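Quick one from the shared queue. A colleague (R.T.) flagged 4-aminobutyrate aminotransferase as missing a structural entry in our internal table.

Convert sequence to C-alpha cells.
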Amino acid sequence: MSSALRSTLNMRPSVARLNAGRLFSTAAPRHSAQPFFANEPKEPSVQTAVPGPKNQAAAKDLSEVFDTRSLNLLADYEKSIGNYIVDLDGNEYLDVYAQIASIPVGYNNPHLAAAVNTPEMVRAIIDRPALGNFPSADWSHILRTGLLRAAPKGMTQVFTALAGSDANELAYKAAFIYRRSQERGFDADFSEEELKSTMVNQGPGSPQMSILSFKSAFHGRLFGSLSTTRSKPIHKLDIPAFDWPAAPFPNLKYPLEEHAKENAEEEQRCLQETERLIKEWHNPVAAVIVEPIQSEGGDNHASPAFFQGLRDITKRTNVLFIVDEVQTGVGATGKFWAHDHWNLSTPPDMVTFSKKAQAAGFYYNNPALRPNKPYRQFNTWLGDPVRAILFRAIYEEIENKGLVENTAITGEYLYNGLETLAQKYPHAIKNLRGKGQGTFIAWDTPNRDEFLAKAKTVGVNIGGSGASAVRLRPMLIFQKHHADILLEKLEKLLS
C-alpha cells in the first residue's frame, strides 16, 4: 500500500481505534495479529504470462474430456496454502474469490487435515451410508457436535443435502408439503383422487402452488431452484420453468447515508409489491425465499428494516419465510449467519446453507415441516457424513481462532481502505457497498471482466457478480496484512 493511502487510512477514526487495539487484543490469544498461516507466501508472485504455458497445455488436455469454457485457472492444490492459490506455472495469487465463496479456513488447513485422518472419516468415506435408511450409529453425535452447534437462533433441526441448489429444492418441497397439510389437516390422509391425479401430474394431487423469489436472485440451477433464479438469462435459457412470481428487490443508491429517504421509499415500494403478489398471484404462494445479499445478481443489499418488513408480511399472509444463506452464511458478513444482522422478531422458518459449510441442507424448528409420512423427503444419500464431519472441524477452527470476529474487524479495515481508493478513483470504484458486512464487499466498475483478468497479472484472484460488480469473497482467515496487499494491488491496477 502506498504511504499516502496508508496515512489516510490510519487517520480514519474507526481504523485508528482498531489500530490502537492492535487489530486483535493481545490479551486473547485467538485474536492474535500473528498470521493464521505462518507458511503462506508473504505476497503474491506472478512469474509468467497469465495463463502460463503449463496452464495452457493442461487446459487444452482437459478440454478433450471436460468442458473448460468457464475455466478460471488450473490450480496446484498441493502447493496452495492459506489465502493463496497457486497455478500450474507456480504463480501465487492472493485468493479473494475462494472457490466462489466456498473455502472458509484456508487451503491445506492443518486442523481440517487432522479431521480427515481419523477412523471416523475413513468409515464415512469408504462405507458411505444411505442416511435415510442406514445412518451410522454416530450420525446423531456428528450432527449435534457440528451442524447443530452452528444452527441459527431458534432452530433445532437440520435436513442435510448435497449442495446449495439441492438444499433450496428440499426447502421448497417442505414448504409445499406443509401448505397442503395445513389445508388438508395435518393428521388427514390423502384422498383417492389425490393419489391418482398426482401420477399424471395433475391436481389435486399435484397442486398449482408457487415459491416467490426476487428479481436478480440466484438460488441454484436445478429445476425448482432455477425457477426462482433470476440473475442472468444464460442460467435459464431452454429450460422449462414453473409459473412462479418475482418481486422487485430494492435498488439502493449509494452512499447510503446520502440517500436515506429515497432508499426507504424504494424498500417500502418493494415490500408493498411483494405483499400484492403473495395475495394475488394465480398459483398460491407457499413460501418466500430471499438472499441476505443478492450475490450472483450483483451484490445487491437491503436494510434490516426491509427484511423485518418481509418477515412481517410472511407471518400475516401465512406463507413460509426461507432465507438462502448458501453464500452469505458461516461468518462471511461478520456474523455467523447474515440474517443475524436483521434482529428479526421471529426466526425464519427455514435457513438453507452450503458453500463455506462444505456441507449443505436447511435448518428449521417447526416439527410440522417434517412430512407426515416417510419417503416424502428422501433420496439415497440425504447429504454426506464426510461433509458433516468436515463442517465440525471447520466450526471448531472458526471458534478457536475467533474467525467471525476477525472477519468483522478486517472487513471494517478493508472497507475504509476501499473508501479512500474510491475517493481517489471515482470512475473505477462506484457504488461501494458492504459496510458493516464483514468482508462481503463489492463495487461497480467499467470494463469489469477486463479488470478481473488484469488483477491476475498482479497476483490477485478476484471475482465478479451481476453485469458490472467486482465482489470480494476472501476466506475467514483474511487479515489486515492481506487487506494491505489487496489495496496496494488494486491501487496499482487503477493508477
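The CA atoms of residues 75 and 119 lie 29 Å apart.
Residues 404-446+455-462+490-495 form one domain.
Added to the table.
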